[in-house]
Amino acid sequence: MEKDSDKVAYCGLYCGVCRQYLEGQCQGCLQNHSATWCHVRTCCMENKCRSCASCAQHPDPSSCRKLNGVMAKIIAFFFNSDRIACLKSIKSRGLEAHADYMAFHKSRTIRKR
């Protein structure tokens, strides 16, 4: 699996092991300029944050409405994804170590418990 911090999405998911990314059907979060529908991506880009983990407005990502909106909750339920846990991993490990961890576990997200 590819270990690359550039494959970590703004919301903490790891594109480097995503089937669609690996099959060339998706460019990944950072390079996908058509992903204007993603409010999290747009917010991070506007505020020059590499990920929500470095957001000064919401040091606790749980308090961000964009990250925890209705659509985000639906996606989280569908994929059994805990993006808050991913962001906490980035905060505690750092971006590169988070990418290594996700690639090692071959997971694009940390699963909800």
Tell me what you see in this structure.
It is a single chain. The protein is 38% helix and 0% strand. It has 113 residues and is mainly α. It has one domain. Helix 4 crosses helix 5 (95-104).
Q: Strand content of the residues, in percent? A: under 5%
Please, how many helices? 5
Helix content: 25-40%
Mean pLDDT: 91
SS-derived structural category: mainly alpha
Number of E strands: 0
Give the termini separation: 24 Å
Number of domains: 1
Can you write the helix and strand succession as a string? Answer: HHHHH
The main pleated sheet reads as: none
Low-pLDDT residue spans: none
Topology diagram in text:
Elements: H1 19-22, H2 39-46, H3 70-79, H4 83-93, H5 95-104
Short note summarizing the structure:
This protein is mainly α. The protein contains 5 helices and no strands.
Descriptive key words:
5 helices; 113 residues
